[in-house]
## 1
Amino acid sequence: MSEPRKLYVRSFGCQMNVYDAQRMTDTLAKEGFVETDTAEDADLVILNTCHIREKAAEKVYSELGRLRVAQEEAGRRQMVAVAGCVAQAEGAEILKRARGVDLVVGPQSYHKLPELVADAERRGSNRRAGIVETEFPVEDKFDFLAPPSRQAIARRGPTAFVTVQEGCDKFCTFCVVPYTRGAEVSRPVAKILDEVARLADGGVREVTLIGQNVNAYHGADAGGRPAGLAELVRKVAEVPGIARVRYTTSHPRDMDDELIAAHRELPALMPYLHLPVQSGSNRILAAMNRKHDRELFFATVERVRAARPDIAFSSDFIVGFPGETDEDFADTMDLVERVGFAGAFSFKYSSRPGTPAATMEVQLPEEVKSQRIYALQALLDRQKAAFDAACRGRRFEILLEKPGRFPGQLIGRSPYLQSVVVEAPREAIGTLATVEVRAVSTKSLSGDIIGGEFFAGGAGVEPRLVGQSETVEA
Ligand code: 5AD
Ligand code: SF4
């Protein structure tokens, strides 16, 4: 029998790409490909790319260059595929710009990978005839992508992403997503529940429902009527084995009353909400076509806080959007001061071809963007540090996910996605533990386990407590 072929997938960008990488791996596993964790010994390398900012998009070309040099030095030929949003946006251009690419495949065509790879293999070294597949097919790719095997689920650990919605109809003027991922599509409730049940059966305890506009979810329920995200979250939380649910990424306009009520009523729904606002200036929000003002954002934050007082927020910000003045930027800083974030992602505006903002008149110089991002990130870092510091002495549940750096340690996640280092045996991975937080550093918290599923005799194990854990250095 011939050796199994080896597959290496490198993902850039968002969590949807992480999910897609798993689906591609599962689908190619059926064709005899086994995963490897280095590009060097792979027969097929897939670069799963991101187009959101110029820097992210350019990475694919440096990566392709590196791959080619490595192949030449090793004197071997690998098949190279470019997937993801750069594949969708640039298509055949990639074949012109980079040598050594056999296949370019957009996110809506991943279910065709087996035939595309077979086709590319038949063409062999005739790389000038690289294959490009960037259609938005009529069939639903999710119906054809293979589910993960039990071993794959176990290997990936007790948390999982599940795509429930893809694409975007909002058309923010800076953003490529409506073009790379297409129009908004929601998966039917039953199919998502099947997928979650399968994951739970394999040991998954926490699912993050993902979509570019996840709180605009409106998938069909059993009767064919559209269900909102609140209903979906409730049903997912009821799947046996599932202890925690999260969802991301949301738009402030789509935080409806039902979803906010779910935060009040569902203990499994984690009290940490990623709610991108992008800017605190009404003028800039309008130019971005965000379809809401800062007042709506403040009101939304208050509504969610009223429903779930222990909730914490994270957000996305863009500085240096075309025409952003010092006053506009001061409004962003003011919004951050007023809301207080437990975490955030912030970016310098990056002009993206084909988006309306790219042709707006007043593009800002790089040093203005740099000054602003520096000030904003300093403020956001202070807020994050203050939030983390306030966790010292608190007790909360963590989901034990993986071994820590030192023997006897495990790393879990708090409800707020903070990494928490504890002393616990490996067998406790996949269980919830109650922890009292003892120490806080910039990267993680550490604490003592004072109870939990494993430690209180859950899963047939004798009750036991573990001792003092060490403070982790930053
Ligand atoms: N420039 C900079 N940041 C961007 N984002 C999206 N498009 C751009 C762009 N053109 C950021 C937004 C979004 C996050 C995923 O990436 O903050 O929420
Ligand atoms: Fe990047 Fe957006 Fe594509 Fe995700 S969907 S990979 S963030 S461009």
## 2
Amino acid sequence: MKIICIGRNYLAHIAELDHELPKEPLFFMKPASALLLPHNPFFYPDFSQEIDFETELVIRICKPGRSIEERFAHNYYDAITVGIDFTARDLQRRCIEKGLPWEIAKAFDSSAPIGEFKKISELHNPSEIGFGMKLNDQWAQQGNSRDMIFSFDRIVSHVSHFVTLKEGDYIFTGTPRGVGPVHVGDKLELFLEDESVFWFRVK
Ligand code: ZN
């Protein structure tokens, strides 16, 4: 199983971090050890002073594929949820400045909490999927799939031209605006449309 993450997929988030508009989807990966299992807290790592949440829709790959054409891409994912792409922003800033890989800022243990999946076919409008995260019971981030620069189909097609996708792989599809820091003691709760799909604490 692998976790693929798309960067810079919402205009307002690109603006808040002062990044360039991408011409094609940008992706990086997290290992299986980045998953945060249910009923576990997220332990704030000692190598960073600036862990940010990025609340994202996550799709699940349902059959193997490579070099998938965009028009067939919808056959390769069938379930969706919300996850957090935890980012050590201080380390990432240094990586970007020096042109270094992002793994130390993105791929660390428990950096990928993922909620319970729902079948995409059960959503009332699969082209406008609302999602969000409550930090200590207040909305911290809210987004909608209609604001994505690159669609799920485009993402699946693009990634599969470089990396073979397998059943059970996860793709984080980018964060909307409103990313921010977490602190020890915080409670994060993830919502797919109006439904709570996961919650955990920072310890
Ligand atoms: Zn992200």
## 3
Amino acid sequence: MAKRSGARRIGIFGGTFDPVHIGHLRGALEVAEFMALDELRLIPSAWPPHRDTPQVAASDRLAMVEQAVAGLPPLSVDDRELKRAKPSYSIDTLESLRAELAADDQLFLLLGWDAFCGLPSWHRWDALLEHCHILVLQRPDADSEASDTLRNLLAARSVSDPLALNGPSGQISFIWQTPLAVSATQIRALLASGKSVRFLVPDAVLAYIHAHGLYRASN
Ligand code: ATP
């Protein structure tokens, strides 16, 4: 095994990825480079507690993310939520990741602003910062507002420079990314109406979608 040289910096980015698209991938890559992450794991959720059931099977969503990040370090895919027979709670994912990491490794949970605003409804949300830092990603179409609870949390825990987040966990910072106003909803709608999604998803993902007949109106 390679010799450890200091704390590792690991980002995690969850989503339904139904399907994964350039908004996810470009954002993930920019954050990984800006934050000098050793690894940024995309974690497809099996049974998202806060939204509708994904349109295609978990195995297909996983395969598409695998195709998208193949040969693209530091991006990788982590399938632990698909192996669990219960809702994909982030706190469970963080606890299981922490059990595999060194105590000084830094974990960064990437969340879109909308997701961050919904945080107080998450299972055991107040324990999340015990395991990770939170990086809030600004999205072009974000129009949610933070509650008073979250404003208080930000007042207590936020750091203006994301590169100044220190220690393994416990702080929050904001990060900007190139706006790409693309969503999986738009991609599913285009495919259902027989239109092209070329350049909205990587070519390998497009090939997978066509080879498996995904997202057609009859699915
Ligand atoms: P849907 O349209 O089905 O709701 P989505 O495109 O928003 O899907 P998700 O899998 O729900 O994709 O998103 C996973 C994460 O990726 C979320 O944190 C979300 O905010 C972020 N994300 C999605 N699209 C973009 C984008 N265009 N730019 C930046 N971040 C994005």
